[in-house]
Amino acid sequence: MALCVSATVAGQTVESPLPAPVWHDEPPQRARWLHDAWQAEQRHDRTQAAAWYCLAARHGSLEAQHRLGRLLLEHGQTQHRQEGIALLAQAAALGHHRAAQDLLALQGTQVLQAQQPACLTGGAAPVLEHVTAAPDATPRPVPHEEVERYVAELPMHKRRHARLIQRLAPSYAVDPRLALAIARAESDFDPSAVSPRNARGLMQLVPGTAERFGVRDALHPEQNVRGGLSYLRWLLQRFDDDVALVSAAYNAGEGAVERYGHVPPYAETRTYVQRVLQFYRAPRHVAPATP
């Protein structure tokens, strides 16, 4: 799929890769995954490329879905090729122009109702030809040192509540970095915040969630944080530590995530998920050491 330009060196024609694409329309985290996938393709490590494209497509990137479809179509076995055609059809139906062009080029090819690749629902990436050994490139969470610098630079009234979250999170088996990402997206560490939907406090608990997790006073900082951490722990178990799904469920409710099977197509929720991922930086939750 990578385009090349030709040059003449010592009388021979050689091919040089074009510069990496710039993913203008993608949020930063998805752009990084797309770039990593593109680089893997340049190494002909198509299995690793498929894994990165799967990750970005799973979190809403039509460009990644298109590129994954092309990759499966060009380098997969029969089942993979049918999945690739189905992915192109889905991307085209959602308005991806190049996917629609690719489908036109396949005129006469039957688009079967193939299932999505398993990697889009948490399974393994498809194994394609010319696999090369590659180290585990799973993104890791933001370094603790960077989080410490961030917290230390907060105004004193916000820093006090960020420290409360850091102190309590491990006892709920929640990574303090993820808890901070959620609180930052929810209230920006304001314990008196109240949303138009009557979500309250640091972790923005709606009355039903507060009652569900035993919070009597949602504007009491420690009660609120404990309730929010209890809910996060429950969501992490429910959605197998998938940070995008957990944060989407925290914002839109677990029912919405279960109905769609992925991050719901709500602008507010998708913006929220990207904000959490940009802070936390890893697609999967890393449990803290037992306190």
TrEMBL record:
Offer one Pfam family short name for this entry: SLT
Q: Which GO BP annotation is one of this protein's?
A: peptidoglycan metabolic process
Give the first-level EC class, as a single word: lyase
What is this enzyme's EC?
A: 4.2.2.-
The record, for InterPro entries, names: Lysozyme-like_dom_sf, TPR-like_helical_dom_sf, Transglyc_AS, Transglycosylase_SLT_dom_1
GO MF term set: peptidoglycan lytic transglycosylase activity
User: Where are the bilayer-spanning segments?
Assistant: none
Residue span(s) of domain Transglycosylase SLT: 164-262
Q: Does this UniProt record's set of keywords contain Lipid metabolism?
A: no
* Keywords recorded for this protein, A-Z: Lyase
The domain of life for this entry's organism is Bacteria
Show the GO cellular component annotation of the record: membrane
Recorded hits in PANTHER family, A to Z, give:
MEMBRANE-BOUND LYTIC MUREIN TRANSGLYCOSYLASE C, SOLUBLE LYTIC MUREIN TRANSGLYCOSYLASE-RELATED
Q: Family per UniProt?
A: Belongs to the transglycosylase Slt family.
Protein name, entry field: Soluble lytic murein transglycosylase
Species of origin reads: Tepidimonas ignava
Could you tell me the gene encoding this protein? slt_1
